[in-house]
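note to self: dont lose this again. the chain is below, predicted strucutre after it. 292 aa total, dont forget to put it in the shared folder this time
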Amino acid sequence: MIFKEKPRNRDCDFGEILSHNVHSTTKFRKIAKSGVCVPDVRGINFLACWSETIFMFIKKHFMKKILFSAALLLGGTALFAQKKTQLILKGGVNFANISVEDDGDVNEASMLTSFHAGLGVNVPITPGFYFQPALLVTGKGSKLQSGSTTDNTYYKSTTNPIYLELPLNFIGKIPLAENTGIILGAGPYVAMGIAGKNKVEGKFSGVAFNSENKIDFSNDDPTTVNYEEDAGIGKMKRFDLGANLLAGLDFGRVSLTGQYGLGFTKIASGTDNSDDNKNKHRVWGISLGLKL
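---
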């Protein structure tokens, strides 16, 4: 008679389930025969342990897709919610900067010209008052320059991150004439970094140099308030939160607005947003809107 050795259980941590390095001290016991990881329930509530497992898996793999889908759903819901709801084609120029002082002040010489473009919806709430969510591709960042291109020695660096931004503005319209009025508005925004480049160029004693590399965003989860996943030196936070202020003129189908975006998030990975107002996006913009 041949006896087979009974497979022995071994401990495995949470990272074996997700195949990622997840910060968790929860231990699991893997049943060698079945190949299934189950919580080691010695001193741990079984249901609580598996709840953490499911939540962390969703957080790691699906949270950003869920948030993005929610943004699209918001726009689609608004589009069909009322008969008078209108699509708005939006585009314009950004004058972007990054704060350099603790109180949020910027260096005007560091302003970087960029763009924004996308679609919004105009949802009437009451006469003269509207909700205007939008989904925009928008450029932010700043530049740093010493000297000019004609000098024997000069230096210029630019950082230009590109975001997919969801502004949620509430707009009031003050009539001036038929189909013409002053518009004032404000609201929050959330933005997700999708692309961008850091560039350096210059001359040293007449010898030119230049370099260019893609911006490396951290794979952060915006739902975790006090922790940034995948933080690292040289990385930029993927998510930016802030508020918009805007004013302009509405001519019926066409509108012309000026806006200001005030970022609440420090852009450098691993930094605490609440420390001060340094290293945060500050963006002026001029936008042309066309109601479809």
